From TrEMBL:
CDD domains: OAT_like. It comes from Thalassobacillus cyri. GO terms for molecular function: pyridoxal phosphate binding; transaminase activity. This is Putrescine aminotransferase. PANTHER family: AMINOTRANSFERASE, AMINOTRANSFERASE CLASS-III. GO terms for cellular component: cytosol. Gene3D superfamilies: Aspartate Aminotransferase, domain 1 (3.90.1150.10), Type I PLP-dependent aspartate aminotransferase-like (Major domain) (3.40.640.10). Pfam families: Aminotran_3 (PF00202). Keywords: Aminotransferase, Pyridoxal phosphate, Transferase.
Length: 444
């Protein structure tokens, strides 16, 4: 840590004033921001650490937004971006144009992906990937002569982004409070009901399960089910063993596409290259973003299984979908380098061993603090909960938010974490440090 200012005090005040005046921040309380200005601005980073304008150093315990997987200040990624920008800053992927990094990355990702996910459609991020997956699913069914298969099922507490379609699938109430109108035909199912999805109609929670929705709406109207292998922003919820397999089975039984939202889980976060690799499941479409480039460039994509790709390529008119930055050469070059480093430095194996260190830390925390419970980690996607009485599972009064207080206190001690207050009465704290973290740093 250093007490050297990286921005002069006058410049700092200027910056804060300009921020208050001109910058409308995402997922921030505007009234508070307009009055108080930014909480802090970061200026530089190195590995798991970031420094603010005052020169204070923090441990980035959430990889910023679950994305800076190789950590901050990675020179190889920065140099790759510079080299590619210097060579060819941009090239369109529309109308059949192409570029080498986009092609090489498509080949690389499809070789790493499970099953026969053999083609990629590029986007600029997670929400665009999920919107694209919905559109491709609907279009696929239309090509199959079933244009009425349009509905999408997502899971309660699922987070899929904020573009209109992705937000409709996001089933966290806060996001619907901001903008309630979305696309029609999206249903939010109760999550993680393995027995129900396998057909257990007598289960007390059957009503509202995926299977119940499919039966009520009719499989011939449903295009796809979208699931995060581990729910991230909704509370770091692990699926029970057998759950994803049960959903896969249900989709096969009814002829529904299975979309895995791997935006957080993908590229090593869970101790496997992709989240679904933790189970015996191959999705039909797989949405990626965030960790694909460790946040060094804005990139996303949808991986598509062979049969869907083969169906789509029968279309003899313009597939009128795509973003200006689909297949951006710099973003793709950075992602290729990111994957090369993940493999070369055996980062995914490090994630698995750091999962054990994190769990050891959780035991210590539970020993010290009688309110801490429900600790969980799959790789470096982790969280814990706070209860007034953890043995009886009595939650804190809803007017008290200890998860926010804990995160504030950690922040004061220079550790960045995130409270997830997405479920009424639950106080969840998320932890997802860069995947290159070591044992000593986990202990810190
Ligand atoms: N899907 C998941 C699982 C996410 O966690 C996120 C973002 O946090 C998104 C989709 C949306 O991605 P983006 O913010 O890049 O649009």
């Amino acid at each position: 840590m250093t007490d050297q200012l990286s921005v002069s005090p006058t410049a700092l005040v200027d910056l804060e004033e300009l921020d208050k005046k001109h910058y409308l921040h995402p997922t921030t309380i505007p009234k508070i921001h307009a009055e108080q200005g930014p909480k802090l601005s970061f200026t530089e980073g190195n590995g798991i650490y970031v420094k603010d304008t005052k020169g204070d150093e923090y441990i980035d315990g959430l990889s910023m937004l679950w994305n800076v997987n190789l950590g901050h200040g990675n020179q190889e990624l920065a140099n790759t971006a510079k080299e590619q920008m210097t060579k060819l800053a941009f090239s369109s992927s529309f109308a059949g144009y192409s570029n080498e990094p986009a092609v090489r990355l498509a080949e690389k990702m499809t070789s790493m992906a499970p099953g026969d996910l053999n083609a990629v459609f590029y986007t600029s991020g997670g929400s665009e990937s999920n919107d694209t997956a919905f559109k491709l699913s609907r279009f696929y069914w239309s090509m199959k002569g079933k244009p009425e298969k349009k509905k999408i099922i997502s899971l309660k507490q699922g987070y899929h982004g904020v573009t209109i379609a992705a937000q409709t699938a996001t089933a966290i109430p806060l996001f619907h409070q901001f903008s309630s109108s979305g696309i029609s035909d999206v249903f939010h199912a109760k999550p993680h009901l393995t027995d129900c999805e396998l057909g257990g109609r007598s289960h007390p929670d059957y009503e509202g399960s995926i299977r119940d929705i499919v039966e009520k709406e009719g499989a011939d109207t449903i295009a796809a089910v979208i699931v995060e292998p581990v729910q991230g922003s909704g509370g770091v919820h692990m699926p029970p063993d057998g759950y994803l397999e049960a959903v896969r089975k249900l989709c096969d039984e009814f002829g529904i596409l299975f979309i895995a939202d791997e935006v957080i889980c993908g590229f090593g976060r869970t101790g496997k290259m992709f989240g679904v690799d933790n189970w015996d499941v191959v999705p039909d479409l797989m949405c990626v973003a965030k960790g694909i480039s460790s946040g060094y460039s804005q990139l996303g994509g949808v991986l598509i299984k062979q049969e869907i790709r083969d169906t789509l390529v029968q279309y003899d008119q313009v597939l009128a979908h795509g973003f200006t930055y689909s297949g951006h050469p710099t973003a793709c070059a950075v992602a290729l380098k990111n994957i090369e480093i993940l493999e070369r430095d055996e980062v995914v194996a490090n994630v698995k061993s750091m999962e054990h260190e994190l769990n050891a830390g959780f035991e210590y925390l539970k020993d010290k603090h009688p309110t801490v419970t429900k600790t969980r980690a799959l790789g470096l996607l982790a969280g814990f909960e706070l209860y007034k009485d953890r043995d009886e599972e009595i939650p804190f009064d809803s007017s008290i938010l200890p998860s926010t207080e804990v995160v504030e206190e950690c922040f004061n001690r220079k550790l960045i974490l995130r409270p997830l207050a997405s479920q009424v009465g639950r106080n969840i704290v998320a932890i997802a440090p860069p995947l290159i973290i070591n044992k000593r740093q986990v202990e810190d």
